[in-house]
Amino acid sequence: MGRYTGPKARINRRLGFQVYEDAGARKAFDRRPNPPGPPARRRKVSNYGLALIEKQKIKYYYGLREKQLRTLFDKARRMPGNTGENLMVLCERRLDNVVRRSGMTLTRPQARQGIAHRHFQVNGRTVKTPSILVRPGDIVTVRNRPNLKRMYEGVAGSDVTQRAEFLSFDQSGPRITVTAMPDFGDVSLPVDVGSVVAFLSR
């Protein structure tokens, strides 16, 4: 799956969760939270279907392609500990998610676009890859350009509801410091990781 450009509210309704956070998708979901399609055609979802929905939540929420998700899954499986929890922690460590969870952007697509356009630096080095996995001690800053600093300072701090505890945010920079390795308790997406692991292990 490439980058999804279709109706975001439709995905939210299909998955029963607001994986897309922009205002239009949230309002549409609040108006019509039921799945798309005629009610008469809706059938009981099988276990396979439920597991697929949980997997799709992760893909859309973190903006992952199928190959990216399976690459992270293979890495999580080789790590010690619970595979499902490891998978979610790897997703949380992605640079685009860190920028979003700091409150510097309002959505993950917005964070990914800014990174791809070279708006951010990690430890003083300009980056353009949203999938970079951060480590404790990493510092994420906006490039030293007045227009970029004004843009992100205007957004920073406007939404702190999802600010992660493993991040320290300095709005004056703006500057993000990764203070610790995230754990499963820091994951902001409610998902049945057990069913996702079973699905990806098929």
What is this entry, summarized?
With 202 residues, the protein is α+β, with helices and mostly antiparallel strands. It has a domain at 94-181: Roll (Structural Genomics Hypothetical 15.5 Kd Protein In mrcA-pckA Intergenic Region, Chain A), CATH 3.10.290. The chain has helices spanning 8-15, 23-31, 47-62, 66-78, 83-92, 95-101, 108-116, 146-155, 193-200, and strands spanning 120-122, 125-126, 139-142, 167-170, 175-178.
What does this molecule look like?
This protein has 202 residues and is of the alpha+beta class. The chain has a domain of 88 residues: Structural Genomics Hypothetical 15.5 Kd Protein In mrcA-pckA Intergenic Region, Chain A (Roll). Helix content is 45%, strand content 8%. The chain is built from nine helices and five strands. It has a five-stranded antiparallel sheet. Strand 4 and strand 5 form a beta hairpin. The model has no long low-confidence stretch (mean pLDDT 87).
Oligomer: single chain
List how many beta strands DSSP finds.
5
Fraction of residues in H or I helices: 40-55%
Globally, the shape reads: globular
- Number of helical segments with 4 or more residues: 9
CATH class of the domain at 94-181: Alpha Beta
Broad structural category: alpha+beta
Write down the Rg: 18 Å
Termini gap? 19 Å
Helix-strand sequence = HHHHHHHEEEHEEH
Strand order of the largest sheet: 2-1-3-5-4
Hey, roughly how much beta strand do the residues contain?
A: 5-15%
What would the average pLDDT be, to the nearest integer?
Answer: 87
Which fold does the CATH topology of the domain at 94-181 refer to?
Structural Genomics Hypothetical 15.5 Kd Protein In mrcA-pckA Intergenic Region, Chain A
The CATH superfamily of the domain at 94-181 is RNA-binding S4 domain
Q: What does the main sheet amount to? A: 5 strands, antiparallel
Q: Do you know the CATH architecture of the domain at 94-181?
A: Roll
